[in-house]
Specification:
With 165 residues, the chain is mainly α. It contains seven helices and no strands. It is elongated, with a radius of gyration of 41 Å.
Amino acid sequence: MRLARETRGIALRDISEQTRISMRYLEAIETDDYRRLPGGIFNRSFIRAYAKFIGYDEQEAIDEYAREQESNNEVAVKPYKSLVYTDTGGSRSPLATLLLAVIILAVLSLLVWVGLHFYQRSAAPKTQPSRTGRQFAPGKSPEDRAREFARAKTDFKEDAHDFSA
């Protein structure tokens, strides 16, 4: 494909700017070094876009890529070893996993409940003691409450009069 591009006088940078494919990937396509490409469907898309831009037959370019991949797979079949750590030791039974999940959920629920309880206690309106120190008892009759209210009102007026003087 490099020859097709050069015969048409198209610069690699122009292709890169128009197709938004990195110069590094375009160079890898021209040298058939497909290991430098990101892999998967991206490879085919990049090859197709490159071939279309230079006027090369897209299907022929994809077929060449597929043949190259088949020959590479036959020559170098190397077992893939994951770089991610996995615990290949004994596996945990499903019952133990379920029990662990239930315990974790119970602890989290308890923490949420305790947090909510303390939040509600701190956000509850604080009752301020009355200035006279008298509080109305809930078990008294309405008449007794009215008398205590009148006494408290009188005390309040006296306090207000003392305060203003």
